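Lab manual, section 2.4: Encoding a predicted structure.

Procedure: take the sequence of the chain (70 residues), apply the prediction step described in section 2.3, and record the output as structure tokens. A sample record is shown.
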Amino acid sequence: ILLLLDKKSNKSKGLYITPEYADDVLEFIKEKERAKQKKKKRALLDFVGVFGEVDDTSASHQKIKASKYE
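Recorded output:
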């Protein structure tokens, strides 16, 4: 694993992972993104409220907002 840092700001610029671990890391990142999206949708539903039957967890926030005005 190789961590790339910016010399001036000392901030992380990237990460190089060997092909041996690439699939595991990619799956971990995908799962983390799914959980983040699910949490964001749940917060949106809590804010907007459920109008009608909007139980589709794969619906985007545009679809949820559109269903509010149907």
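Check your result against the sample. The mean pLDDT is 80.
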